[in-house]
Structures are given as structure tokens and as C-alpha cells.
Amino acid sequence: TEYHSRPIIKIVPDAQSAMTIMDYSGRVLGMIGGAGEKTENRGLNRAANSYRQPGSSIKPLSVYTPAIEEKYAYWSTRVKNYGIPHYYSDGGVGPVNYGNDPGSPDSYVNVQKAICKSYNTVPAQLLKKMGYELSFKYANGKFRLDHLYDVDKNASSLAVGGTSKGVSTLQMAAAYATLETAVNITTHTVTIRLQIQADYI
């Protein structure tokens, strides 16, 4: 018998990470563009220039904010905890909640619980009610998630964050900051020049 040796474990590059910390006035207080030791100048900054699918973190921006602002729903509004028809290419009902829980056509939950439990069914139902155009207008326009495209005008992208390209952590930090200030997104400030007199040090 002849044996051939081959590696059992596939070696893959180390996982990467990125983070942006921003205050409510748009000042970037901290940014991590990647994991590991810095080895080059002007290298890839994943916090600002890498775009990834946001998943459930898009729901407050693309669904709940427009739904509440445009009076399609309120904090206490009860919404059907069940998917929408034709979510899947075969015409099936979706999306499902965590743990592959489809919910039920007879089940209703309020918006507060849907946000706390990060249900997928409820934002899909709200999208069906208010329309993809309004949701897209808020996400792409008001919140400036400008790597959302016409192809993202669907429940997979806007209700559960399965976008075609994605968002950066810088974009998401800026978008979420507006929820506290209730104003439009302002230009990000990364560098601030501080002038301090010696007498005050």
C-alpha cells in the first residue's frame, strides 16, 4: 500500500479587524485600521476603506428609523413575527429569526422587543409595509451609506444587512451618531489642531 502525505490543516491568514470611535459631533476619537503591528505608511485602513456586510446593525438605520420617522410604526406597534412571501428565489417565506426560527403567521411582537431580540421577520414586514424606496432613501441618502446600490433594494440587504458591497466602520459610526443628535450627518473630523499655552499645562 502506498500512502501520500498531505497537510490536514489549511493555513489561512490571520483574521483582521477594524473599529471607529466617534463622538456625536462627528469627531473621530479613535480608529483601528487593522490587527497586528504597523509595517507600512499609507497602507490599507480597514476602518475607513474596507466595506463589509453590516448584518443586523443596519436595521435601525434602514428600517426602524424610517418606519418611526414616517409614522409606519412606533415603539409599541405590534408587527407580525413572520417572514414575507417570495423572500427566497423559490418563492419561499423569509427571512427567519436566530436559531432558524420562522416565527408564526399568528405571532405578533412590538417593535421594542423586535429590536432587543434582533428579529429578522419584523424588519422584513415593516419593509413590505413602507416600501424599499423609502428604506433605501434613508440608508443611502440620510445616513450616507453610499455603497448601497439599486440592487440592494430588497429585504435581504435592507432588513438583514446582506448588502452587495457593504459599509465601513467609519460610515456606521457616523450614521449611528445622528440617532443621538437627531441631525443630518456632518463631515467627519479626523485631525484637530490643539494650541495650548504653557501656563495652562
Automatic annotation (TrEMBL):
Keywords: Cell membrane, Cell shape, Cell wall biogenesis/degradation, Glycosyltransferase, Membrane, Peptidoglycan synthesis, Transferase, Transmembrane, Transmembrane helix
InterPro entries, per database record: Beta-lactam/transpept-like, Glycosyltr_51/Transpeptidase, PCN-bd_Tpept
GO molecular function: penicillin binding; peptidoglycan glycosyltransferase activity
GO biological process, one term: regulation of cell shape
Residues covered by the Penicillin-binding protein transpeptidase domain: 21-181
A GO CC term attached to the entry: outer membrane-bounded periplasmic space
Gene3D superfamilies xref list: DD-peptidase/beta-lactamase superfamily
Protein name, UniProt field: Penicillin-binding protein
Source organism (scientific name): human gut metagenome
